[in-house]
Design a protein that fits this description.
This protein is of the alpha+beta class and 175 residues long. Helices cover 27% and strands 25% of the residues. It has a single domain (2-167), classed as Endonuclease, Chain A (2-Layer Sandwich), CATH 3.30.870.
Length: 175
């Protein structure tokens, strides 16, 4: 299955259906990261609340992003102890990341133009959202190489030869 998804349909299909369906792990790779909010019941909550709940329920969450999030994200982040204390939540920063992808349990992947922001993936009004597109797939021939690449990135395999290391705030290879 390969499904092309546009604009606000991304929120409905990916944020409301696919992400909460993760049972083992959720990997999110994004260039930009902001204090995205999502609808839960009759109110809007930080997406970090969703991630925290997933971690509390035993889902491993890995977040790879290119730059430090803004103060609102950091303020919200500090409200969720599971994201700070649990070994099930991993976060890495790499200034070269421009990929936007979400991998769910190694069974589905969403490869997209949308960042992890309200205008990209979030519950913003259709007239305020970015114009975004993405492909949701369950094809192993795409998912497995994406996972291998994301894992190598997370483990710092590219750090040693990176020519932007001098601006990297926290090299992933630990050196």
């Amino acid at each position: 299955m390969t499904e092309l998804i546009f604009n606000e349909a991304i929120y409905a299909r990916i944020v409301e259906q696919e992400i909460p369906a993760a049972r083992r792990f959720l990997w999110i790779i994004t260039a930009d990261i902001k204090d995205m909010h999502v609808v839960r019941g009759k109110r809007s909550v930080p997406f970090l609340a969703v991630l925290s709940e997933m971690v509390e329920n035993g889902v491993a969450v890995r977040l790879i992003h290119a730059k430090e999030p803004g103060p609102r994200f950091r303020q919200d982040f500090d409200r969720y102890p599971a994201l700070i204390e649990s070994d099930l939540f991993e976060r890495a920063l790499c200034p070269r990341v421009h990929t936007k992808a979400i991998i769910i349990d190694g069974k589905r992947a969403f490869i997209t133009s949308a960042n992890l922001t309200g205008a990209g993936l979030g519950a913003k009004h259709p007239d305020k959202r970015n114009f975004e597109a993405g492909i949701l797939t369950d094809e192993k021939k795409h998912i497995m190489p994406l996972m291998e690449w994301a894992d190598e990135l997370f483990l710092g395999e590219y750090c040693g030869r990176c020519r932007l290391r001098h601006i990297c705030p926290d090299p992933l290879d630990g050196e």
